[in-house]
Amino acid sequence: MKLVLSTSNIMGGGPSVIRRAAFEKSNTELTTALRGNIVESQQGVSIENTDGTDNRTHESPPPFEAWTSLEDSNLFIPAVDFTHSGLAEDRPQYDITVKLFYLPDVPTEQRGAHTREAIDLVLKELHVPSIDLLIVSFPGVAFDADDEEEDEASDDVASGRSSSENGEIDDIDVMLETWRALEKLHKEGIIARLGLSEFGTQRLMKFLPKTSIRPSVDQINVRDCCVVPKPLILYAKQEEIELLTHNDCTNILPRGTLRELLGPGHSGAGILADHEREKGLHGEVEPQWVVKYTAVVKNRGVVENKGYFAVAKLV
Amino acid sequence: MGLLATGTPLEWPEAKKVADHVRDWGIEQLLAIWRRAKGKERDALLWGDEIEYLVVCYDDEEGRVRLSLRQADILKALAEDEKLLSQGGGVPDLQRGHTNTGDTAPTFHPEFGRFMLEATPGKPWGIGFKDLLDVEPNMKRRRDIAKEHMAPSESPITLTTFPRLGSPDQPITPYYPPSGPKLRSQFVPDEIANPHIRFPTLAANIRARRGRKVQVNVPVFKDEKTPWPWWDPSVKYDLHNWPEDDDVRNGAVKENQIHMDAMAFGMGSCCLQITFQAKNIEEGRKMYDQLSPLGPVLLALTAATPIYKGFLADTDVRWNQISRAVDDRTPEELGEKPLRDNRWHIPKSRYASNSTYIAQDPRLRQEYLDPELIIDPALKQRLLDGGMDDLLATHFAHLFIRDPIVVFAEDLKELDLDAADHFENLQSTNWQHMRFKPPPPGSDTGWRVEFRPMEIQLTDFENAAFAIFIVLVTRAILSFDLNFYIPIRRVTENMETAHARDAVNREKFWFRKNPFPEKHTKGAEEAGSRGPSRPASPKGPVEAEHALLSIDEIVNGQTAPANGATSSRATQAISKAPDDLFPGLIPLVESYLDSVNVDVETRCELAQYLSLISKRASGELWTAAKWLRGFVRGHEEYKADSVVSEKMTYDLVKAVERVAREEGRDGFGKEMFGR
């Protein structure tokens, strides 16, 4: 079974979008928003059941079947109503950016299919035929300003020295493989521009010549934005690649976090069971990918819609 | 400053007779504008900043500095030069060091003070992030251009007030004696005001309506050797040029207060004002309301006015002095005499903090409004009859309780519904800390909101920082659907609080604890396409919604740990009561920036601006007021008696110019910049 988690529009949704302090992990936004959407859906069901009398605080949460939906072995958590458009104005008013996080421990050959799935969900959610920019994040690729200073001939940029957290490293060829799928979506007119994240100069130099649709964006973590090395700035300018900032962490949805979110207990959604005898779904969750979408009204700089989908396999 | 229409201005007794006439026509013009523009939609965010300068003139041999009254000459030089600019030549190398080709040249405007100059960008800014990068260089360019059109001994400086304006040594050039027929001030001459007929008439008619001179009294700063009780030693009690010379013999001077007596002491102050264009009238009304509670906070944060008329004041900001300098209320309206000829007792000056909220927003609770708001019921009824909704009609019927001050005889012959002159007559002489501006007739401009409380900063770095900060705050407000509502009377209270010396670090301000929309529930959702946020009707006592917060908490957030606090403590705080801890304006802006595509260069620049504001709020960096006060108290000539001498003023103005040039990079003024 596939689990499709979603946040719905998190703008105006309260504290989940707010970075409270610098020390907070930047995936807090995703997990808080997912949890918030689950809780609200559960409450919505409670209200309907109790005819508006508000005693939900003392109740146990409603069964997940009541607020999720199962379609073709996809379990939507919570159920998503795609009938309303996510945007108030016409498509040309918006700049729609999508960032797709490929996760570690997922076979790379599935990324093509995952990309299409993710984009389809976003298009369906926002009621649009295309997006302006797709940025992809490969697991384990972390930008390191210091590495940039090293000898240009150094060959181990792609072999793991600049990565830290997740262990798994793609080499350029694997990433290019994925890129072919993105290029295809571009050629179909679904994505106007393609982007990368956390690429340093050397990785870019290796990557660019082998692409047919070149990336027009490279996203760097905001904490490094004032120390971006000069060579990268110059190279990006020369290659007409925009260097943009982000505040996402690469390991955006660890398995443990997801398990906790869906599991039993106080802060869980009550979907996954811990023991054989418990009610709920049984098995291991394997996060597959996460996609973030943002729709900004171009000439006003107002973020009108922002949200996430996260997909996991239950095996 | 608005358009400088001209004609034959009516003296006060005549102007008073036609006040109803002007108001009636003003309301008709407003209705015509409103009908035409209420459906205006999808305007882009355009915004503009206004930088105001004092023009000073050095006498380096004598070690003196004076205000230059050559505004007209300087503007003439600029105007002629602009002609050259548009002809494509004649001005070599206009912007040394701040090259920005392809720009529209900035524009310069007269201001009330004849020693002032105002400069605005040649075209409005957008929200493109590259635009934001141009703001500071553009401000620097404006300063350079202004300087280049002055005499070598003159300089534009961005100090709110001239430290010794109105002192017995008359620090103005050329010299004019005080006590003229228009201002009747014993401290400054009529020539201190812009000679355009509008300005002296404004000053004279305010005085005439009031029945005496304006009284601008500011508490003096009590230093170690300040005589106490303190009576302003520069006041002359034996003048007999004008009937108003009696004012000081009738108690206009107060104990322990610096005494001033003319419009120039207030309207001669420099401010940093920002105007935004809204998407439509609805968004404009929302921005007006949501920015209103931020006004006092930004006033305290930008504090830059610790000196008046040669004395250290016990306040840090200009606001109330301007308010008193244009206060045209009669003794009856002030409540000093029973009402006979006047209609109302009016609690605030024409220049004051806002008294209305105007958004058609379900989050606006009745309790936030001023229950004793003074309005003109007949004019409100006319607006209602014309189709305007109650809230907006109330707002304008409140502004229209005032009399028009400057009326030109020629304008009363025929009502032109395609013009806005009568409406603007009242609108633009209501100087509140927010202004809601309808589209001007015959232009494509949309509904606009002006944010007016900020003090001008010494450097363009700071002016750009605060201008851009406010722009980003509006984007965060609209994106996150933030709610800053508190009762409007609390905003008024905050405005007073903002005056205290070092209010930015020492005072607390009423502020809404939870700015986020009500939690929505899935069952009751989805009226429109805009997603989840259909706010539920608010509940709970109004008093529980807000609390007294420090500026640090308002700007940096209540959970942001002070130096060295551990993350676990902060995490605990979050898990305890996240809804009751204000997240902070800077974290809100950061979150907004995290949600949009910003290039690294822009983000890095913005980080410097946000860091400045964050550290001003925390007290790590000083406001200009604190630094200027410190400069005086540390001066070798200072005798700890609150007196700011001529030599000290000279050194201070030189210091201010050095700060504007170096921005702390040479270590001078590093308390303000941290670099």
TrEMBL record, chain A:
<dbReference type="InterPro" id="IPR032963">
    <property type="entry name" value="Gclm"/>
</dbReference>
<dbReference type="GO" id="GO:0035226">
    <property type="term" value="F:glutamate-cysteine ligase catalytic subunit binding"/>
</dbReference>
<feature type="region of interest" description="Disordered">
    <location>
        <begin position="146"/>
        <end position="166"/>
    </location>
</feature>
<dbReference type="InterPro" id="IPR023210">
    <property type="entry name" value="NADP_OxRdtase_dom"/>
</dbReference>
<keyword id="KW-0317">Glutathione biosynthesis</keyword>
<dbReference type="GO" id="GO:0016491">
    <property type="term" value="F:oxidoreductase activity"/>
</dbReference>
<comment type="similarity">
    <text>Belongs to the aldo/keto reductase family. Glutamate--cysteine ligase light chain subfamily.</text>
</comment>
<dbReference type="InterPro" id="IPR036812">
    <property type="entry name" value="NAD(P)_OxRdtase_dom_sf"/>
</dbReference>
<dbReference type="GO" id="GO:0030234">
    <property type="term" value="F:enzyme regulator activity"/>
</dbReference>
<dbReference type="GO" id="GO:0006750">
    <property type="term" value="P:glutathione biosynthetic process"/>
</dbReference>
<feature type="compositionally biased region" description="Acidic residues">
    <location>
        <begin position="146"/>
        <end position="155"/>
    </location>
</feature>
<keyword id="KW-0560">Oxidoreductase</keyword>
<dbReference type="Pfam" id="PF00248">
    <property type="entry name" value="Aldo_ket_red"/>
</dbReference>
<protein>
    <recommendedName>
        <fullName>GCS light chain</fullName>
    </recommendedName>
</protein>
<comment type="subunit">
    <text>Heterodimer of a catalytic heavy chain and a regulatory light chain.</text>
</comment>
<dbReference type="GO" id="GO:0017109">
    <property type="term" value="C:glutamate-cysteine ligase complex"/>
</dbReference>
<comment type="pathway">
    <text>Sulfur metabolism; glutathione biosynthesis; glutathione from L-cysteine and L-glutamate: step 1/2.</text>
</comment>
<feature type="domain" description="NADP-dependent oxidoreductase">
    <location>
        <begin position="89"/>
        <end position="244"/>
    </location>
</feature>
TrEMBL record, chain B:
<comment type="pathway">
    <text>Sulfur metabolism; glutathione biosynthesis; glutathione from L-cysteine and L-glutamate: step 1/2.</text>
</comment>
<dbReference type="InterPro" id="IPR014746">
    <property type="entry name" value="Gln_synth/guanido_kin_cat_dom"/>
</dbReference>
<dbReference type="GO" id="GO:0005524">
    <property type="term" value="F:ATP binding"/>
</dbReference>
<dbReference type="Pfam" id="PF03074">
    <property type="entry name" value="GCS"/>
</dbReference>
<feature type="compositionally biased region" description="Basic and acidic residues">
    <location>
        <begin position="515"/>
        <end position="528"/>
    </location>
</feature>
<comment type="similarity">
    <text>Belongs to the glutamate--cysteine ligase type 3 family.</text>
</comment>
<keyword id="KW-0547">Nucleotide-binding</keyword>
<dbReference type="GO" id="GO:0004357">
    <property type="term" value="F:glutamate-cysteine ligase activity"/>
</dbReference>
<feature type="region of interest" description="Disordered">
    <location>
        <begin position="515"/>
        <end position="542"/>
    </location>
</feature>
<dbReference type="GO" id="GO:0017109">
    <property type="term" value="C:glutamate-cysteine ligase complex"/>
</dbReference>
<keyword id="KW-0436">Ligase</keyword>
<keyword id="KW-0317">Glutathione biosynthesis</keyword>
<dbReference type="GO" id="GO:0006750">
    <property type="term" value="P:glutathione biosynthetic process"/>
</dbReference>
<dbReference type="InterPro" id="IPR004308">
    <property type="entry name" value="GCS"/>
</dbReference>
<protein>
    <recommendedName>
        <fullName>Glutamate--cysteine ligase</fullName>
        <ecNumber>6.3.2.2</ecNumber>
    </recommendedName>
</protein>
<keyword id="KW-0067">ATP-binding</keyword>
